[in-house]
Structures are given as C-alpha cells and as structure tokens.
Amino acid sequence: MNRRGFLRGAAGAGLALGAGLPAIGGRLASAAAGPNLSRIEARYYVKRPDREIECRLCPRFCRLGDKERGYCGVRENIGGTYYTLVYGKVCSLNIDPIEKKPFYHVLPGTAALSLATAGCNVNCRFCQNWEISQVRPEQIESFDLAPEAAAARAAGSQCPSIAYTYSEPTVFFEYMYDTAVQAKRRGIRNVVVTGGHINPEPLADLLEVVDAVKVDLKGFSEAFYAEYVRGDLKPVLETIRAVAKSKAWLEIVYLVIPTLNDRMDGIRDMCRWINGEAGDSVPVHFTRFHPMYLVKNLPPTPVSTLEAAQRVALEEGLRFVYVGNVPGHGGENTNCPGCGREVISRVGYRVDAGRLKKGKCAICGTPIPGIWA
Amino acid sequence: MAGARVVIVRSAKAWTPEGDPDPAVVTRMFARGFALLADTADGAAMVPSLFRADDRVGIKINTIGGRAISTRPEVALSLAGWLARSGLAAKNLFVWDRTTRELREAGYTPAAGRSGIKVFGTDADGVGYGPDLVAHLGVGSLFSKIQSEFVTASISLAILKDHGLAGVTAGLKNYFGAIHNPNKYHDGRCDPFVAEVFDAPPVKSRHRLTILDALVVQFHKGPSYHARWAGKFGGLIFSLDPVAADATGWALIERLRMAAGLPTLEAEGRAPLYLKTAEKMGLGRAGTASIETLEETVE
Q1: Terminal-to-terminal C-alpha distance of chain A
Q2: Counting Cβ atoms within 10 Å, is residue A327 exposed (0-12), middle (13-18) or buried (19+)?
Q3: Packed helices A173-185 and A147-156: angle between N→C axes, nearest 10 degrees
Q4: What is the dihedral of CA A119, A121, A126, A130, to 10 degrees?
Q5: Which pLDDT band holds residue A331 (cuts at 50, 70, 90)?
Q6: Testing the interface with B: which of A123, A126, A130, A132 to mutate, by most B Cβ within 10 A?
Q7: CATH code of B198's domain
Q8: CA-to-CA distance for A347 and A341, rounded, in angstroms?
C-alpha cells in the first residue's frame, strides 16, 4: 500500500476527534509552514566533550555530535544539548476501543484516547504503522496538544484512559510522562503500547505513572531481532520482567509471521519463559500478520497457525491466551481458568463482559486478573 | 574492473581576502578537474560524455553542517554556472539537499524560478518524497522526488568530513540526504547501508560523477564543525568512480590526522567499512593500489 492508500485506510480506522484535529497520519508537511518541532531538553542523556552527547533513553545509547539526530529521528543534539523535537507534537489522535491496542484485561469495552508522535527506536521490516513510526517529525503533519490539553480531551471525550501507541512511545518519553501525570490527576488511566526497547531507569520512572503496558514481543531469538527488528531481544525481555514485577498491568503481543517466527518450538520456549519470568496470568495475544512495509512477500498468517500457537501456550500453562486480528474467532474470548466458561465475549471490538462480576467469574467466582474498573 | 582515476585540483588562491571561496578560482578548478578526468585540454569537452544536452542534472550537496562545514555555495553555484556554460541548460540544473532550513543555514538562497539554476530542498512545496517505498537489499526508504523523478542525472558534490560513526562522510554517504530515514542506517558504522543506498536504482541509475569539496576538511570529531580539527586543504577531488573518490578522501583525512598527531581511523575503530562493501558490490575501487591519482595546482 502506498502512502496515500495508507492514509485513506487509516483515516477510517478510529473515531476522528473534533474540528481542527486530523485523524491518524497526515500529509507531508510543507516547508512553507515550517516544520512543527519542539525544542524541549530531553531527559536521560549525558553531555560529552566537544558538544557530543550520549542518549541513555534506550538500549541504543546513541552517541551524537552537534546537529545529529538519534536513531529514532526525533531527538537532536543542538550545540551540545539534546532536545526532543516531538514534545506535544501529535501526528495521530483517535478514540479507539481499548481492545484495539490490544488490551483485553484493562477496562474492557471502553474507549482510549490514543495518541502518537512520529518516530521509533527500531525498524521492524514488517511494521504495520511505518508511515508514522519510520519518518522524521518534519515529514508528517502534526499539531500541538500539550499534556494538560490531552488529559482534558480524554476527560471531555469520556475516555477513561489515554493510550500512548501507534508509533513507539519511548521516543516521545517526556511528552508521554508529563501527559500521564496530568491524566493521573484527573483519574484517567494511562496505558502504553511499546516494543520494549527502553532502559531500566526511564522505565522505572514511567512505571510510577502508568497503569498498563503492552509489550510487542516480536520474536524469541536475537537473530530474529537483529535481522527483522534491527534491535535486540535482551532489553525487551528485561522490560517484560520489570513490568511484571511492577504494579502496572502487563500484556504481551506476538505477531506471528509465516516462516519468520512461527516455529512452534520457538513459541513454546517463549511461552515457557513468559510463564517463568512474568507469571501465568499475563495475557498473551497471538496476532495475525498482514503483508506490510518491507515484508510484502509473505501471506497473512493462517488462522491454523495462530490456533496452534494458542494451544502451545495453554500447554505451557499460560492461562489467558488469545488469537488476534481474526474478528469473530473464538480465541478472542476470555475464558475462566476455573470453570472454563466464557466470561468476556468479543467479536472484533464489540465486547460483552457481563459474566465478569467485580473481577471474578460470575459462574464459579474464580478471580480474573486485570484492571476492571 | 579497470583502475579508477581520481583527480585532485588544489589552489592556494581558492579564498578571497575575506576568507570565502573565490568563485573565479573555484571555477578554474572545476574546468581543470573535468579536463584531467578526460585527458583533454578543455574540461567542457568532457561534459557531453557525461550528460545528454537535455539531461536534468541534480547537484546533491551536503548542508547539514551549517555555514562552517557544508558544501559551500561558492562551490556548488560555481559548478552549476560552469556546467551551464559548458553545454547544459541552466534551467535543467538543480542544486539541492534535504531541507530549506539547512540550505539557508549553509548560506544558500533557495530559488526555484522557471529559468535559471534552481536551489531547493526536498521539503519545498510540491516536492517531497516519492509515494512508494524503494526496498533494496537491506534498505527500505522513500527517495526524494528530486532524485527519483526530477533529475535524469546526478552529481554528488559532497563535503569531505570525518564521521564519528561512518568514519568518513563523502560522496557515497551524501545520498543519505536523498532518503527520508537516514537515521535508520547508522548502525554498524553505516555498513553496508551507505553502499546499499547508493546501489538503489534512484541513485545508481542517475549518478554520473563525484566531486568532493575539500577546500576545508573536517578531519576529526566530525561530522560537526570543530575549528581545531578543520584543515584548509584548498582542493576539489573528482572521480567517475564513486568509491575511489571516497577512498581518496579517506586517505586525505588520514594525511591530515597524521599531521595533527591523531591516530588513524582504523586505530580508533572507525575505518569506513562501507568502502570495501561498495567495492565488493561492484560500485568502484576502494584499494589505493587500483586508483590512479592525478594532483594538480591551479592559480
């Protein structure tokens, strides 16, 4: 799909907000208006001699000279000081069902004010949102939305949560953090959708102000991460461990790509690791791949592969395992691990949580972990 | 692959008393460089062998370093002017880089009139990046429409600099400025990405000539400008072989580093690996033994 096609499709993907705010994406920004960039000093970096800096936000540890940008493309060394160029510069804003993130154990059936800026700190060859994640902020239209304004907009739109999503929120850390603080003051929850490439210190700070984190675990080998993600697996696993130990809710998504990461022995190893390190209550979503970005030569994932992965995960003791991106599939539902009955039914983004009472199965009373109210 | 010729033209009079490049002298340097490339007395005679008369020629410059260490306007506009007097139509000459802001900061006045030499950035109204990803080897990028649509032939007129990650930035890496996501290709000392971006059809099919602006060379702590490590070499480096041009630029940087008592890039673990990769890909010659270097001085 080309850029125009993507924008046409994406514009219909969520509920666009009020006048003056575009839906997801946007056209290339024009030079006539000048780039809409912030110049807010970044956090988590150190200054080096000769106007150099070292970024400590993510495991890349970009070391940059004056006028250079990090791998993410949204942080720049200007005269020896490191700046975020995307603070409050939103390129995508929608009200989405929280199931779209996907979070299945967080406020089911509610809407999340979902926002993103440009940029990402990896370069997945199968990226589903590359038109915003793999561009520089001046290459896409953005608009100003200060943290307090974002929180107010969520409240005004009856969204009980704000989702930092679409691109990679780590690269707009300062904006995400400040917005989360503002939202928290209003009683609005904060949920993060991330690839997990973030260093322990900023992650620890983030976990103080957010309620839930969904980590995209894109494979389970360093070789896969090196070739297809252009990142490392180890820091992602560290992130999963840290979130699991924190008070924030954790869910994991595994995009199953035919021939690239769909071997069941690898999936079994991954499930065993998740169970051992994060516990059996972490929801794991096996989602369907669609050809995109630089991987267009592979077909969509067969549903049978997703079902096989789900079986393997259940065999390994994980209690909440889902099939995703297959609307209407029975694997979207939440089944009680006690009595096996369906407690939350889903068809696409339509949700019926009527058999979940105060976080427990209405039939047998087994607690279902999550954030339910 | 035949040996590659690289021409270095220097002048002690390349600067005006104010310290700016002297366009008249720089123009003579271009004329002599083209002549030596083709073994002819008249550099202009070389032009038809490189370009068709109706070619739209892009002169890709590098302006990320600001006024202090970018391809200088006096150099780029002298080249464009000389080409216009040597058989190419002025209206078909494009001096360009990524952004209007960077062009201005480097001293250029963006102008895109209907006649005459045009200077503008990819971000100018009506330009932008092509709509479709070019997926080539390990690279996936949108290319500037200037490179992929507007021009039919291309000159890489790069500034020669040390580069903290790549080792050297010169003519090949200059085309990072033609893609929308260069920040994604600095891993592994930019290897193999520099070679792969050059090898991508929008570049390889159009590239004709590399010229390195080596009037002032940043030989350490680049790509940023640091006066302490910027050497006034007073030269332009020409080659039809894009790899040989950069290999010669690297050798020059090592010369300047040695004179300043600095270790080699190899010793610092920053040798530009992408040159060997480019050679393996058949893009040109990286070994100095297979490069014929002609050096001449003009008044």
Answers
A1: 39
A2: exposed
A3: 50
A4: 10
A5: very high
A6: A123
A7: 3.40.50.11440
A8: 17
Widest CA span in chain A: 67
Beta bridge pairs of residue B134: B141
| Enclosing domain of residue B89 | 4-297
pLDDT classification of A35: cutoffs 50, 70, 90: confident
Q: What are the pLDDT digits (tens) for B219-253?
A: 999 999 999 999 999 999 999 999 999 999 999 99
Amino acid at A274: I
By the 10 Å C-beta count (0-12 exposed, 13-18 middle, 19+ buried), A223 is classed as exposed
Nearest chain B Cα distance for residue A96, angstroms: 27
pLDDT in tens, B81-116: 999 999 999 999 999 999 999 999 999 999 866 669
Number of residues written out for chain A:
373
Chain A residues whose CB is inside 8 A of the B142 CB are 3
- Average pLDDT (A331-349) is 96
Q: What percent of chain B has pLDDT over 70?
A: 98
Alpha-helical segments (H) within chain A: 3-11, 130-133, 147-156, 173-185, 200-207, 222-224, 233-245, 264-277, 303-315
Domains of chain A in start order, with CATH, are 3-14+88-312 (3.20.20.70), 40-84 (no CATH)
ipTM over 0.90: yes
Per CB-CB distance under 8 Å, the chain A contacts of B129 are 28, 139
> What are the tens digits of pLDDT across the range A212-230?
999 999 999 999 999 999 9
- In terms of Cβ atoms closer than 10 Å to its own Cβ (0-12, 13-18, 19+), residue A12 is exposed
Count H helices, E strands: chain A? 9, 21
CA distance A237 to A221: 11
**For A60, which residue in chain B has the nearest alpha carbon?**
B187
Tokens of B76: 């780029």
Q: In the sheet that A75-78 helps form, which strands lie side by side, from edge to edge?
A: A40-41, A81-84, A75-78
Distance from CA of B125 to the nearest CA of A (A): 6
The alpha carbon of residue A3 is apart from the nearest alpha carbon of chain B, in Å, by: 6
What are the C-alpha distances in Å from A269 to residues A223, B154, B189? 15, 51, 33
Closest-CA residue to A133 (of A86, A180, A178, A175): A86
**In whole angstroms, what is the distance from residue A306 CA to residue A26 CA?**
33
**pLDDT of B145 higher than 50:** yes
- The partner residues of B45 in beta bridges, in order of sequence, read none
pLDDT for the residue numbered B115: 61
In B220-251, which positions are buried (b, 16+ CB within 10 angstroms) versus exposed (e)? bbbbbbbeebbbebbbbbbbbbbbbbbbbbbe
Backbone φ and ψ for A227, nearest 5 degrees, come out as -85, -40
Instruction: Report the pLDDT value the prediction gives residue A133, as an integer from 0 to 100.
Output: 97
From CA A148, how far away is CA A79, in angstroms rounded? Answer: 30
Report whether A242 contacts A278 (CB < 8 A). Answer: no
Q: Does B92 touch chain A (CB under 8 A)?
A: no
Total count of domains within chain B: 1
How much is the average pLDDT of A228-236?
A: 97
Contact B140 A293 (CB under 8 A): yes
Indicate if the pLDDT at residue A11 is higher than 80: no
| Statement: residue A317 has pLDDT above 90 | yes
Decide if A82 contacts A42 (C-beta within 8 A). Answer: yes
Q: Report how far residue A284's alpha carbon sits from residue B209's, in angstroms, rounded to the nearest whole number.
A: 54
Across chain A, mean pLDDT equals 92
